[in-house]
Description:
Layout: E1 3-4, E2 30-32, E3 39-43, E4 46-53, E5 65-72, E6 76-79, H1 85-95, H2 100-103, H3 128-138, H4 145-153, H5 174-177, E7 203-208, E8 210-217, E9 226-228, E10 234-237, H6 238-241, E11 265-266, E12 270-271
Parallel strand pairs: 1-5, 7-11
Antiparallel strand pairs: 2-3, 3-6, 4-5, 6-12, 7-8, 9-10
Amino acid sequence: MRRILLTLACLAVPGLLSACAAVPGSHAAKWRNPKDGMTFVCVPTGHFTAQVPAERTSGNDPEKTVPQEVTFLKGFWVGRTEVTVGQFQRFVKETGYLTDAEKAGNRFTWKSPGFPQEADHPVVYLSYADTRRYTQWAGVDLPTEAEWLYACRASSTTKFYWGDLVDDRYVWHRCNTEGTGTRPVARKRPNAWGLYDMVGNAWEYCQVGDTSCWVSRGASWTRCPQYRTRQGTLTGVLLEEAVEPRLQRCDPNPKFPPYPWDDDRGFRCIKRASPEAK
């Protein structure tokens, strides 16, 4: 394994250009975005090992990956929670914005997702384009997949940021919500850097290199920790798969494009400039 700065075109890490003072305890510093009231937590410098797509040559397996160390020379700021219904409502009230689901006349939207929500629940039923409009308004951005994984893991080397087993003290999922919808943010325990619901509650959009490609990370209340095959065999840990340190290639034309919005899909913001710590 060799230590690198990940600079592949579709796996670029804009966080390398960010600024957030890397001093002992700096990750505890917070910044409040005056635009939407979101509290951001400082993520310090560091690195983590990820499986990244191997260089493509003739005859190579397009799914082949190799381990590489992704390094962040400067820190950055990440939203303490997922963007909430109340914060998105603030954006809509100021701009008059209509989401893609609303413009399409979809039965469910962020206003009425099909289950009860309060202002402190993560907003859902948003398209990737919706989240981009919000971040532009709020003066922030969406994290790249590498930034999101680094912030989620918070220097941990276990499957999850709390250990190797699913722990309901940290995560909302279908089994402990009885499949009834999202839950208020920041009710479970945070990771070591003070970020809540990095696993569970809502899927979170991440950029894959540039704004034309995205993935969802973190899993949601719709995911059970485990599932069984038709033969009854227990397989795969779904929550684990949603946070595994594996980066994607930019694919603007996927074979199986995901739904443009869904009842469990939200987002979290990042700030790469260095606001004054409080």
